[in-house]
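Q: Okay, next protein. This is DUF2256 domain-containing protein from Qipengyuania xiapuensis. I've checked the sequence twice, so it should be correct. Can you predict the 3D structure?
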Amino acid sequence: MAKMRRKADLPTKICATCGLSFAWRKKWARDWDNVRYCSERCRRNKPAGDDQS
C-alpha cells in the first residue's frame, strides 16, 4: 500500500478556462498529462475554438 501524501506535495496545473490552480486526483492518474480543466463545468464552458482534436 502506498504511503499517504500531503495535498501540498501533489502536482498541480492551471485550469485552461478559469485560470485557477488545481491538484492531481486519483481518478486522473492514468490521464494526468491530458487533463486541462479543473471541473466538468469548466470543460463545458471552454472558450470557442479551443479544440484539442
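A: Here is a summary of the prediction. The mean pLDDT is 87. Strands lie at 12-14, 21-23.
Q: Noted. On to the next one.
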